[in-house]
Amino acid sequence: MTSASARVVSRAARFSRLNTLWPWLCAASVALSLLMLGALLTLLLVRGLGHFWPATLEEVTLSSGETFAGHAVREVPLPQQEGDERLYFTGNQDIEGARWRWVAIEQIVERAQPTDLIRIDRSPWGDFIGHLVAIEQGDQRWAGDAAWQQLTALLALPASQRQAGQLLLTTVDGQTLRQPLANVASAQAPNTMAWRQKTYAWGEGVWRFLSEGPRAANTHGGVWPAIFGTVLMVILMSVIVTPFGVLAAIYLNEIAHQGRLTRLVRIGVRNLAGVPSIVYGVFGLGVFVYGIGGSLDEWFFSDTLPSPTFGTGGLLWASLTLALLTLPVVIVATEEGLARIPEAQREGAVALGATRLEMLTRIVLPMAAPAMLTGVILAVARAAGEVAPLMLVGVAKLAPQMPIDGEFPYLHLERKFMHLGYHLFDTAFHGEDVQAAIPLVYATALLLVLIVLMLNITAIFLRHYLSRQRGNEC
Amino acid sequence: MTPPRLTSARQPLRLLQDRVATGLITAGGVGVLLAILAIGIFLVWEALPLLAIGDTLALAKLSPLAWGTLKAALAALLFAIPVALGAAIYSALFMSPRLRTRIKPALEMMEAVPGVVVGFIAGLILAPWVERHLTSALVLIIWLPLSAGLAGLLWQLAKTRLRRRLPLSWAGLWLVPWLVFMVAIALWLAPWFEQQWLGGDLRHLLDQRFGIDYATRNAMIVGIAMGFAVIPSIYSLAEDALADVPASLIEGAQALGASRWQALWKVALTAAGPGIFSAVMIGAGRAVGETMIVLMASGNTALFSASPFEGMRSMAAAIAIELPEASPGGQTYHLLILAALVLFIFTFLVNTLAEVVRQRLRRRYRQMGGIS
Amino acid sequence: MLAPLHSANTSQAPVTHFSSESCCLSIDHLSLAYAGKEALRDLTLSVPRHRVTAFIGPSGCGKSTLLRAINRLHDLNESVMHSGQITLEGQDIYDPQMNVTELRRRVGMVFQTPNPFPMSIYENVAFGLRLQGRLPKRKRDDIIEWALSSAALWDEVKDRLHRSAWQLSGGQQQRLVIARTLAVQPDVLLLDEPASALDPISTLKIEELIRNLKSELTLVLVTHNMQQAARVSDYTAFLHQGELVEYGPTDQVFTNPRLQHTENYITGRIT
What we know:
The complex is a heterotrimer. Chain A is α+β, with helices and mostly antiparallel strands. Chain A has helices spanning 3-19, 22-50, 93-96, 145-156, 195-211, 224-255, 260-272, 277-300, 315-340, 343-351, 356-385, 388-393, 420-430, 434-473, and strands at 58-62, 67-77, 84-89, 100-104, 108-112, 118-122, 126-137, 140-143, 166-170, 176-180, 184-188, 214-215, 220-221. Chain A folds into 3 domains: 58-112; 118-192, no CATH class; 224-473, MetI-like (MetI-like fold). In chain A, 57% of the residues lie in helices and 15% in strands. The model of chain A has no long low-confidence stretch (mean pLDDT 82). Chain B has a domain at 57-131 and 213-367: MetI-like fold (Orthogonal Bundle), CATH 1.10.3720.10. In chain B, 79% of the residues lie in helices and 0% in strands. The longest helix of chain B has 43 residues, at 11-53. Chain B is flat, with a radius of gyration of 27 Å. The model of chain B has no long low-confidence stretch (mean pLDDT 82). Chain C has one domain (23-266): Rossmann fold. Chain C has helices at residues 63-70, 100-106, 121-131, 137-150, 154-157, 170-183, 200-213, 226-232, 250-255, 260-266, and strands spanning 23-34, 37-48, 52-56, 80-88, 91-92, 107-110, 188-192, 218-222, 235-240, 243-249. The two termini of chain C are 30 Å apart. In chain C, 47% of the residues are buried. At the A-B interface, α1, α2, α6, α7 and α8 of A face α1, α2, α3, α4 and α5 of B.
C-alpha cells in the first residue's frame, strides 16, 4: 500500500462522514414543517379558545396611588430601558376613554383579586369592570349580594321578558355609573367562580361566538352571519359545480374521442386548478357582475338604476365565481374515479343490452360516486378558505340583511353576504380597535381552519376507502 | 323449467333516451370546457385596448407590481425549496413506511390552511414579534439547520442502544422536540449575542451602518408565510417523483459499491430531477398568484427595493385592493386586467411545463419498469 | 354434412355448411381492422343451433375479436373498421335498422375474468331484466331463480341473495355472470375463455354447465385450452393470424385434422 492511496481513502472517509449529515438536514425539514404546522394550530387553539375562559380580574395599585381594575394580557420588555411592562385590559371605555392600559411592572405596588369585582358586557361601549352597588327596578332596589343574585336571575331570562331597570355601578377608583339593564348582555364575577362554573361560562362564550352577530366594531359578539354566509355560498357553489363538473368529466372520459385534443383539454383543465384564485375573481367581476349583472339590471331592474341590483357583487356571482374556480377540482377527481372503473364493468353492462345511458347511470356513476364526493368535498374545502376572489364579487364587511329571510323570494341572490375569511381579514386589518378584536380574530381563524381541515380529512378518508375498495376488487 | 318469454316495448324509447342524453352530456361538457376557456379570452379581450394603444405610461405603472410579485415569490421559494425538497427526500427515501403514511397527509394538510389565516398570523403576530426580536429571528434562521447537523453528529457519536431507540427512519418525528429545545436555546442566547456582537440593537446598527430601513411587514415575513403555504405543494409532488424512482435503480447503484447516501444522491435525485423541477415550478406558480398572504404580510407599498427588510406590492394584491374601486372601462381597470392576464399566462405556462415534464418522467419510469 | 377436402397446405379454409334451419349464426367474408391493423381476414363460417362451437388458436389469432364482433362490442371503439356480414337467424346484425341493445340481449357474452357488478347477487341477475322494463316482483323472482338454477348456482347462493356479489369465489362469480346473461334469455351465449382465470374444480363446473346449457341455446366458446375444447364442444374452428384455418366436428378436427398446420397446433408443436 502506498501512502498516497491511503490519503485518498482517508479523505474520502472524512468527506463521507460530512455527507452523512445530509439526511439529518432533510429529516429536520420534516420536523420543521411539522413544528410550524403544530405551532400554528396550537396558537390558534390556545388563543382562539382561551379568550372565552373567564379571566381573573385584578385590582392594581400603582406607586402613584392610582388604582384600576382589569385583567393582564401580556408583558413585553420596556423599550430603551431595563424591566418589563404589562398590558391590562381595563374596559370602561365610556368612563376612561380607553380600554387598554400599559403599566411598567416596577410601578405596581399591589395586585389584589377582590371577589366582588365583576365584568359586564354591554352593547354600546363594550365591557365594564368594577363593582355592582345596586339594581333599581321601578320602586324596588337590591343592594350588595342581593343585587348580584338579582342580576344573574334577570340575565337568565330571555331578553324580551326582562323588566326595565338600571344598574348602579362604581369603578375601583370610585367613579359611579348608571347602566340601563336593557343594554346589558351578560355579567360575570370571575374571581368567585369555581372551576366548573368557569367551564360553563366558557361553553356559553363559545356558543355566543357561534350564534350571535358581531357587535361593537367586531370586538364583541360572534360570527353567526359570517358562518351563515359562508355556508350558504358554499352550498350554492356545490349545487352549481357538481352537475357541471361531473358532466364535463363524463364527457371527457366516456364520450369524447380519446385523441390528442382530449389529452390537451385534460392538461388544460388540470392546469386551471393552478391558476391564481384572484384571476377567477377578475373574471367574475368583469363577466358576471359587470357583464351579465349589468345587462340584467338594464332589462329587469331599470327603475332602480343607477343603483345596481345584480350589477354589483352578490351571493349569486360569488357562488358562480367560486364554482368556476373549483370546477377543475371536481372534474379531475371525477375523471380519476371514472378511469379507475374497470372496462370489464362497462362491457358487462353493455353486453347485457344496456344503452350507454343505462350503463352510465346504473353502473359507472354509482361506482364513481365516492370519487365525485371526494371532488366536491375538496372543492368545498377550497371554496370555504378562499377570500381573494370574493373581495371582488360580493363579500361585505357587514351585511345589513341576511341573504335568506321571510320576505319573498326568501333567497336573495343579489344581496351581499358576510364570509368568515373576509370577516377575519377585515377585522384584523381594518378594525377600529384591532387590539380588542384580536382574540375574536383568533377564534374566527380557528373556526375557519377547523372547517377546512375537517373537510380535507373527510376527503382523505374517502380516498382511503376508495383505494381499499379497489384493493378488494382485484 | 323455462320462464315466460320477455316482451319489450321500451326499445325505441330507450334508444331515444340514450341519444338525447348523449347529446346533452356532450353539449354540457363542451359548454363547461368552453366556459373555462372563456377566462383566457375575456382577459385578453379586456386587456387589448391597453396593449393596442401601447400606453407606455400605464405599462410603467405595472413594473413595480411585477417586481413586487417576483420579489415575494422569490422570498417564498428561497425558504420553501430547501425545506420542501429536504422533507421530500427524507420522507421518500429514509422515512419508515409506517410513519410515512401518517406524515405525508399531515404535511399535505398544510396546504389546506387558508391563506387568510396564514396572512393574519404573519401580518399581525409574526411581523411585530420579528420587529422586536430581529436578532433572535435571524439567529434562528441560521441556528436551526446547524442544530439539525448537530443532532446528526451527536447521533453518530451515541451508543448503539440509543441509536436503535432513535433511528433515522423516525427522525422526522423525534427531531421535533429537539428543534423545540434548540429554538428555546436560540431565543435565550440571542439577546446576549446581540449585546456582545451587534452593539445591543441590530435594527439601529442596520440603519446606521448600512442605511437599511426596516419595515414591520417586509419581504422576509412574506417569504416565511408564503413559504409555509408553498411547502406542501412542492413537497407533495417532489415526494411522489422520488418515491416512484424504480427501486432497481437504487439497488443497482448500491450494488456497485456506492454508500446509501451517494446512491440516493446520485441516482435517485438525478432520476427524479425532472419531477423535482416540475414540483418547484408548481410551487412558483402558487407563490406568484397567492393573494391574501402578500396582502396581509407585505405592507403593500409599491417599491423598487431588493432589501429583504422592505415591503412590496404584488400584482395579485393590487388587483384585490384596487379593482373593486376602479370604474369599469377606465385605465386602471384595464391595467389591472392586464395584470390578471399576466398572472394567468404565467401560471398557465409554468403549470403546463411542469405537467409535460411530469408526464414524460412517468413514461420514462414505466419504461424502466418501476411503476405499473 | 361436411364436404371433405384434402388439399394440404392451402390457406383457403374449408367451410362447414348447415341447412338454414339448423344454422343459427353465419359469418360471411368478415374482415376487421383495429386502428388500421388487420385482425380478421375474410372469415367465413356458420355456427349450428343448440350446439357448442369452440374457437381455438394461438393468442393474437383473432378469436376474441371475432367473438366481440358477433356482439357488436367493437361499437364502443371508434377505431375499428369492418367489412363483410354477420347474420343472426337470417338478420344482418350490422344493418343500420338493427337495434344494438336488442341484439346484445339476444347475444349474451361472458368475459375472461368474472365481472359481477358491485351490487347484491340478486341485483346482478336482475340488472338485465330491469333494462327490459318493469316486471311484477313475483315474475322477476321466478326468472332470477330459474337463471341461477340454470347456472348451477342457486343452491349455493339462495340464502344470501342480497349479499354483495364480490364476496363470491371466482368460480361462483363466473357462474353468476352466466346466470345474469341467461336471465335476459339470449339465443346465443358467447364465452370468452370463461375458465381461464379459475381453478380446476371451478373449471370443471363451468364446463359441465356449458354442456347442459346447449339444450337451451347456442354456445360459442373461445378457449386456448385444447382439452377443454375437446371436452365440451361439438364443432371446432382453428384460427391463425386472423384467418380460419380449419373448421369441422370436434372429434374430426382433433383426431384427424385435414391440415398439417392444425395438427401442429393441436399437438403443441406451435403455440
